[in-house]
DNA sequence: ATGGTCGATGTTCGA
């Protein structure tokens, strides 16, 4: 079984790249963020033509999450009871043996800003939601754009990013609090090249110079984490013309 | 030198 996460930064613009990538990579499940599409505009026909079920929670201009799965999707949850939030950032689904929680964590703008406070509050509330989900589902995956680089090795220049947005200690503590629920960052279960990142700023030739951060993650509950055989970042789509600023992160499992 | 580039929108804002 292969699953993946990808912040596509507008599914309208990126749809051909997403379809090409899915046709080639053949994930059993793909979680996407920043679709920036209302539900009535969702290209569900294109996904069906490729053999995928699709569920989505969209809004105009901002945010928007979706899950594409080869197996049918059930028990869709977009609004955790403890989180009153009109922003469309969460999509929890059951697909085959998996409970999958797709997250587009708020960016936070700047440390100390209102958006930063919203981010930390959102993360605290989503932690409670994930804990409840894990209590009911032995095979839980939490994946998406976390907008947090968990450690200095996830940052191209840790000193210049010290206590900046995406890297601040409260954000890293919030990420750690999710992991402490019993979730493993699958990417770090394996030896990885130095300078492995999932996002590069469009500005200042960030990708060409590998000025990136690893902020997109796949976390898994213990039974799943033990059966994970690989977790990689696929930089190929980031090299295309008119790419998303994020690359897909992919995890594979044996025995599922 | 607090820059730079996208995407959606609308003559800026969020990332």
Automatic annotation (TrEMBL):
UniProt xrefs under InterPro entries: AP_endonuc_1, AP_endonuclease_F1_BS, AP_endonuclease_F1_CS, Endo/exonu/phosph_ase_sf, Endo/exonuclease/phosphatase, ExoIII-like
EC number of the protein: 3.1.11.2
Matching SUPFAM superfamilies: DNase I-like
Residue ranges constituting the Endonuclease/exonuclease/phosphatase domain according to the UniProt record: 4-246
CDD domains: ExoIII-like_AP-endo
Keyword Chaperone in annotation: no
GO molecular function: double-stranded DNA 3'-5' DNA exonuclease activity
Cofactor entry: Mg(2+); Mn(2+)
Signal peptide feature range: none
Enzyme kind, highest EC tier: hydrolase
Pfam families in UniProt: Exo_endo_phos
Keyword terms: Hydrolase, Magnesium, Metal-binding
PANTHER family, sorted: EXODEOXYRIBONUCLEASE III
Family: Belongs to the DNA repair enzymes AP/ExoA family.
Protein name per its UniProtKB record: Exodeoxyribonuclease III
Organism encoding this protein: Methylococcus capsulatus
Gene name as annotated: xth
